[in-house]
Specification:
The chain is 65% helix and 0% strand. By secondary structure, it is an all-alpha fold. Helix 4 crosses helix 6. It is globular.
Length: 236
C-alpha cells in the first residue's frame, strides 16, 4: 500500500513513516465533524471515557493514571481546560428575571468569572499546597508534587461537573436564595473532596473530614486572594 501523504510503501493500518491512516477517504461533512471533535476532545472518545470514569470510578481513574495505565485517558490539564470552557459557556446563559443567574455582581467577582479557566488552572498548585498542609500528618509526603498536581486537576473537573448540575437551579431559583445557593454549592463540593482525601489517605471518618475541611478553607483563601490580586489592576 502506498501512503497518500508521503508516498511510502507500507503494510498495516498506519504508515510507518508519517503515521497517516491507510484508509483516507474523500472530504465530507462527516469527516469535517469527526476532525473537529478529534481536535476538541483530544483523541477519539478519550474525553467522554475519561469524564465517565471520573464520575463513576474516580478512584480507578487516578489509580490507573498514577500507575502508568494511561492509554485511553485524556490528560488531566487538557481535560480541565475543556470543561472550564464548557462551564463558562453555560454560565453565561441568563435565567429568568429575579433568578440567581441574573444577580449583578461586583467588578471583582465578574472578572473572576470571566477568567475562570485561567484562575482554576493557576490555582491548582495552591490546591496541592493546601492538601500538603492539611494532610502533612497523614502521609502527604508519599506523593510528589506532579502527582498531586494532576490528581487535583481531575478533582477540579469534578467541581466543574457539580457546578454544571447546579447551573439550571440558578436559572430558576429566586435571587433571595443566593446565599443559600452559594453555601449549598460549596457543601456539595466537599463530597468529591472528601472522596479524594479518603482514597489517598485512608483513615477515620471524622479525622479525614476535618483535614478535608481545613484543606478546603485554605484553598478558598488562596483562590480568593489570587483572584482579587489579578483582578485589581482591571478594576475602576
Amino acid at each position: 500500500m502506498i501512503c497518500k501523504n508521503c508516498g511510502t510503501e507500507f503494510e498495516g493500518n498506519y504508515c510507518n513513516r508519517c503515521g497517516q491512516k491507510a484508509t483516507v477517504g474523500r472530504l465530507t461533512w462527516k469527516s469535517v465533524c469527526d476532525n473537529l471533535l478529534h481536535g476538541i476532545f483530544h483523541v477519539d472518545n478519550t474525553f467522554i471515557k475519561t469524564t465517565r470514569t471520573l464520575v463513576v470510578h474516580p478512584d480507578r481513574l487516578i489509580s490507573d493514571y498514577f500507575e502508568g495505565r494511561r492509554k485511553g485517558y485524556m490528560a488531566p490539564i487538557p481535560l480541565l481546560a475543556v470543561w472550564c470552557v464548557i462551564l463558562l459557556f453555560f454560565g453565561h446563559i441568563k435565567g429568568l428575571p429575579g433568578s440567581v443567574s441574573t444577580i449583578e455582581m461586583s467588578a471583582t467577582h465578574n472578572w473572576i468569572i470571566d477568567h475562570y479557566t485561567l484562575l482554576t488552572i493557576a490555582t491548582v498548585p495552591f490546591m496541592v499546597l493546601a492538601v500538603k498542609i492539611a494532610f502533612r500528618k497523614a502521609g502527604a509526603a508519599r506523593y510528589n508534587w506532579v502527582e498531586y498536581l494532576l490528581g487535583c486537576c481531575y478533582l477540579s473537573v469534578l467541581y466543574i461537573l457539580l457546578s454544571l448540575v447546579l447551573i439550571p437551579i440558578g436559572w430558576v431559583l429566586d435571587a433571595s436564595y443566593y446565599s443559600l445557593y452559594q453555601w449549598g454549592s460549596m457543601a456539595l463540593c466537599l463530597i468529591p473532596t472528601y472522596w479524594a482525601a479518603h482514597s489517598l489517605f485512608p483513615g477515620k471518618f471524622w479525622i479525614t473530614l476535618g483535614r478535608t475541611l481545613w484543606a478546603s478553607v485554605l484553598y478558598l483563601l488562596f483562590f480568593t486572594a489570587i483572584g482579587v490580586t489579578l483582578a485589581f489592576p482591571f478594576m475602576d
